[in-house]
Design goal:
Layout lengths: L2 H9 L11 H11 L2 H5 L12 H7 L9 E7 L14 E7 L9 E2 L2 E6 L14 E7 L8 H11 E12 L23 H10 L3 E10 H10 L7 H14 L16 E9 L3
Parallel strand pairs: 1-2, 1-5, 2-4, 5-6
Antiparallel strand pairs: 3-4, 6-8, 7-8
Helix pairs in contact: 4-8, 5-6, 7-8
The structure holds S-adenosylmethionine.
Length: 272
């Protein structure tokens, strides 16, 4: 593909790189990503040390109704720390996770069952199996995003809830090898394409908020604290995401253009 055609179609954010791949290309991508996040060595095996609970509460969990969830699914939930804020409301947890290394036997006293995803994106679950689905920072590691989001819609029970959070910026030009700290294939998903995929999966979006503004992590580094672990940091992030939302673009080409929210947090529900 010509460089200018690639930029026009994908770096512009009009189309999502990977979403139109055929089976052979999808298999290659899937194999590259299977252990790629584990190999970065960024994840703590102590689920109690999970660092985004304040963030996930502020942007996602607080929108959930005050009820119990019979069966929850974590797509790419690794050790499962993201479930902690709602763990006491869940009876049963299944995690779809390709890495053999990012697995916990249990979350506190709740047993966790793991299943392996397959490249096609087909999930090994019956229709309407889960009343809560979490998918945090995972779809951008996957080529066939629309297919996987359709599967999330299929396995969600009527009235069930889906919480998704993904980068909505390119994360650099992914043809380049020079992207330190990232896996080979990960790339953000343009916001409008992510929201369209959720709608096409039969889910109704109840909330979709810009988050993870670039100044937030800089403030965290200055203060030597994790801004996403607690509510105050998440509230500061929301204010910064709102203040910089006007500058959102998928693929920035200058430092100034990088001053913007980098992710979107979506809370969606499958209609009854
Ligand atoms: C950035 S990590 C996020 C982990 C966790 N959700 C969190 O928020 O800490 C991405 C996760 O997606 C997983 N992953 C990669 N490809 C996947 C696939 N095809 N299906 C499900 N999970 C996948 C990785 O192994 C990793 O656990």
């Amino acid at each position: 593909m010509r460089t200018d055609e690639f930029a026009e179609r994908y770096l512009s954010g009009l189309e999502l790189w990977g979403d139109d791949f055929g089976p052979a290309q999808i298999e290659e991508w899937f194999a590259d990503e299977r252990e790629a996040y584990a190999n970065l060595g960024a994840a703590s095996s102590d689920s109690e040390a999970y660092g985004y609970s304040g963030f996930n509460r502020q942007y996602g969990f607080r929108y959930l109704p005050d009820r119990r969830f019979r069966r929850a699914l974590g797509v790419g939930s690794a050790f499962g720390g993201e479930f902690l804020p709602v763990l006491d409301r869940i009876d049963d947890i299944t995690i779809l996770e390709p890495s053999a290394h990012l697995r916990s036997a249990a979350l506190r006293s709740t047993p966790v069952r793991y299943e392996d995803p397959v490249p096609s994106g087909d999930m090994p679950f019956d229709d309407r199996s889960f009343d809560l689905v979490l998918c945090f920072g995972v779809l951008h590691h996957i080529p066939n995003v629309s297919k996987v989001v359709r599967e999330i819609g299929r396995v969600t029970a009527p009235g069930g809830w889906v919480l998704l959070c993904e980068p909505v910026v390119s994360m650099g030009d992914w043809r380049s090898a020079d992207r330190p700290g990232l896996t080979r294939r990960e790339r953000g998903i343009p916001r409008h394409l992510l929201e369209r995929a959720v709608g096409d999966a039969g889910l109704s979006i109840r909330s979709s908020l810009f988050c993870a503004a670039t100044p937030t992590s800089r403030i965290g580094r200055l203060l030597r604290c994790n801004m996403y672990a607690n509510r105050i940091g998440a509230v500061v992030d929301r204010a910064l995401a709102l203040a910089t939302a006007w500058n959102y673009r998928y693929h920035p080409t200058s430092a100034w253009q990088k001053l913007r929210p980098s992710s979107v947090f979506i809370v969606a529900q499958r209609p009854r």
